[in-house]
Amino acid sequence: MPSPVHCPTDAVLEAYQQGHLDGGTGATVGRHLETCVDCRGRAADLSAGGVPAELAGLTDYADIRPLGRGGMGVVYRARNVLMDRVEVLKVLHPSTLGWAGARDRFLREIQSAARLHHPNVVSAYAAVRCGDGLVFTMEYVDGQDLSRVVKSRGPLAVGVACGYVAQVAGGLQHAFEQGMIHWDIKPGNLILTRTGVVKILDFGLAKATREVDAGGGPVGAFGGPVGAGLTGC
């Protein structure tokens, strides 16, 4: 990890996130963020409470609120004014803008999700241009992820757990039939709706089956290997 004396100040990180640094300085900060976990955390903290100006400027959306961050993306809850419904907006985190291939990977995620149409997979709605970036709009699921469900309710009854697993298996089978494998199935990526339907989140780590056949699994958001397999339902 780089020495703290080489870490950018909060002011520099904020300027980087807002796109106010010149090209050379911005590239330097971007490279630093690729290797410095502490600074990535600081950058996330600095932006966690706000909404990017470009996103706030989307006239078709109102009441935009941060929901959280995972990997390279930031997600927001918003109301689609024209459709009169709540949706999720996903964008790349500003700290990834200097990363080679980040935008291409995000676009592949969007295109992969667009091929999926199944009741147990969160639906993709659209992709729109926003400034120099992209906004991925998708279904908002009113519910809790299964990791929180188990923590709050305790171990699930065998019959209930098997029912949830069957739903997830149906969604994964559909993805496989579209040529994709989800590489990060875990309770935190499975949302239980108020009506008992389980929906799979985050096909950002999906990989085309033809790529898997060619050898090797995908690489995680920060370069680490991603393991496959259903964990602890």
From TrEMBL:
Superkingdom, natural source: Bacteria
GO molecular function, a single term: protein serine/threonine kinase activity
Keyword field: ATP-binding, Kinase, Nucleotide-binding, Transferase
Key word Cell wall biogenesis/degradation present: no
All copies of domain Protein kinase, residue ranges: 61-233
CDD domains noted in UniProt: STKc_PknB_like (cd14014)
Signal peptide: none
Identification of the protein by name: Cellular communication/signal transduction protein
Origin species: Fimbriiglobus ruber
